[in-house]
Each structure stands twice: as structure tokens, then as C-alpha cells.
Amino acid sequence: MPLTDQPTKGMYIREGGKIYYIIDRKLKTQGRQGGLIIMKLKALESGNQIEKTIKAGVKVEYIQPETIEVQYLYSDEKSCYFMDTTSYETLPIKKDVVGEYVNFLKEGDKCLVMRFDGKVINLKGSPTVDLEVTESTPAVRGNTANSATKSVTVETGYTVNVPLFIKKGDVITINTESGEYSGKAK
After folding, report:
1. How many whole angstroms separate alpha carbon 140 and alpha carbon 70?
2. What angle do CA 124, 125, 128 make, to 5 degrees?
3. Per 3-state DSSP, what percentage of the chain is helix, strand, and coil (rounded to 5)?
4. Terminal alpha carbon distance of the chain
5. Torsion angle of alpha carbons 138, 185, 95, 111, nearest 10°?
6. How many CB atoms are located within 10 Å of the residue 111 CB?
7. Whole-angstrom distance, CA of residue 98 vs CA of residue 111
8. Which run of H or E residues covers position 54?
9. Per-residue CA distances from 176 to 99, 102, 108 (Å)
């Protein structure tokens, strides 16, 4: 595998037989000693996040996973099922690999899957999704003591807090990283 001394955000690296995704990277200089690279890593097997510090210039092994486009079909208790858009084969992916993104998937959605050595290591979804509101309670006049929000359910079953003017049938944009309301879809 290729080595690099410049790990960057979004890169996949292998260390100790495990594959990590670099979430964030910072460079810290210490006078004459040289710099340190502080990396925030996500272990793709367990989903845990760790922080690792290495000296600048130390070589790390990076991998280049194969990227394939898939279409979401359905999910059960353990896995989500996708169809490879080129070979039309069904691809089961464990829910711990999909993570919280399963809350924003609806039938027919397309996303990218990263595969290495025939094993799915990550799913790259859209940063925002547009979903239709299926359940909404009516806004109560004068109910603004704390914040003027209410809870609604979208077509995937996910519940999100939105402003009071959102009603059933509206299409809203949700940030998939934070799971929060971003705005009304255009």
C-alpha cells in the first residue's frame, strides 16, 4: 500500500490492521522540535472515534477504496439493503456502517459506498436531504415561551424539531450530519 507523510481530512488510513477515516486533522508546531499532526479518526469496524497524535513527517499507510453507486431498497433490524447500479446485485450493509444516515434513507435514494478488499467500509450520503412531513401537530397560538418550535415526523419515520409554520405535506430540508431542520425545500 502507498505511504504518505501528509494525512488529510477525508483520507482512509490503515494502522494495526484496522481501517480509519480521518474526520479532522490539525497541525501543531512546537518550536525547534518540529510539528505534530493531531488526527481525529473514526474506526470503521466499530464506529468509535479516537484522537491520535503523530510527528510531522512520519509515514502512514493510506488506502484507496473502490467507490460504487448504490440505490437504497429496504432495511430490517440488522442491515440495510442496496442495489449496485452497475451490476444490479443486492448489497447488504450492516446498520452500524450506515449509522444515523438510515433515518434519512427512502426507497430509491442513491448514495456512494466505499469498498476495500470486497468489504464495505463506509457509506457516503448527501449532506442534506429533502423529506415530506407526514405528521404534524397544529401550532398553538402563544406557545412561544421557550422556543417557537414543534416536533414533526417525516416520511422515513424520523422526528425533528421545526418552526411552527411547518405543516403536514410540506417538504423540508434536513442536515444529515446534525439531524436538524435546515429550511423549507424549494
Report:
1. 43
2. 145
3. 5, 55, 40
4. 45
5. 160
6. 17
7. 11
8. strand 49-55
9. 11, 10, 17
| pLDDT at residue number 131 | 92
**83 φ, ψ (degrees, to nearest 5):** -115, 130
Which run of H or E residues covers position 82? strand 79-84
Burial 63-92 (b: 16+ CB within 10 A, else e): bebeebebebbebeeebbebbeeeeeeebe
The residue to which cell 468509535 is assigned? 48
What residues in the chain have per-residue pLDDT under 70? 1-2, 140-146
pLDDT at 141: 65
Helix (H) or strand (E) holding 29: strand 18-29
CB 12 within 8 A of CB 45: no
The domains located in the chain, with CATH, are: 3-63 (2.30.30.30), 66-124 (2.40.50.140), 128-184 (2.40.50.140)
Task: Give the pTM.
Answer: 0.74
Residue pointed to by grid coordinates 512520519: 58
**75 within 8 A of 91, measured Cβ to Cβ:** no
- Give 61's strand partners: 3, 14
The residue type found at 165 is: F
| Cβ atoms within 10 Å of 131's Cβ, excluding its own | 21
